């Protein structure tokens, strides 16, 4: 293995393109190959990102000797099969979220990674961003007192239903799997404890997947979390961390921008509705801003390289990914989509 991690990208879809763009700007990585079901698609992708090797099959990509790590950007239902194939071929794997179709598959994937001595990480790229790391440090330093509530939303409205893998039950689609997993992972990250209860309500699309869901999670340390996610509704897509002495508002938690990333730390005493027309008794929010050292997916790739090359703990550990899949399993079963 060289001092730069050589990536093979599995798929040529939108998220694969974003990852390739990030790796081009990364400091410790390079893209060595791309694989697709069709040679023409692989060739086009390789030309666009100046990738030296292009394969018209997934198997050829995972078997390529010039590849150290595989970025698995295939549909959810294919994560399990091709992550196992890549691990068996001796590759490290960064697998897109959600890691698998269910917790049993996720467990098998991590067992295979440990048996092969390779690194497997779920690709929640927001975890690598300095905005997320700073918010975590603010919570741990007591900036808002004791954390009591995590509140998140991740929604969008799409009119493209036909041929959209997110609306395919067979491909493990649905709002919880596509974007609700971010809310669950974020809640687990900041709560810093295991869940002891979870509830969910939702609406099913005619295709059989959930297109709108609202849930709550209770953690063993008393932290509560609430979230909404949907593929047919618009929302503010923010995150709030609410404590005994204040709150943190993160306007863009899921894909922080290159410029203007940050959050505000505020205090809400007295309640805002009671202070209308009255002198402000609470101090103005304190804002934290940062310009990251690189592009979001490039930072993620470099973090993964640090785990492979330097032994740095992964941003998303085995327990994180399996725990998130277990909650997804529970909620999807209760909605009747699993």
Could you please describe the fold and organization of this structure?
Helix 1 packs across helix 8 and helix 5 packs antiparallel against helix 9. The model has no long low-confidence stretch (mean pLDDT 94). With 338 residues, the chain is of the alpha/beta class. It is 33% helix and 25% strand. It folds into 2 domains: 138 residues, 3-Layer(aba) Sandwich (Rossmann fold); 162 residues, Dihydrodipicolinate Reductase, domain 2. Strands 8-9-10-7-11-12-13-14 form an 8-stranded mixed sheet, with helices on one face. It has 9 helices and 14 strands.
Key terms:
single chain; 338 residues; alpha/beta; Rossmann fold; Dihydrodipicolinate Reductase, domain 2; 2 domains; 8-stranded mixed beta sheet; 9 helices; 14 strands
Task: Summarize this entry quickly.
The chain contains nine helices and 14 strands. It is α/β, with parallel strands linked by helices.
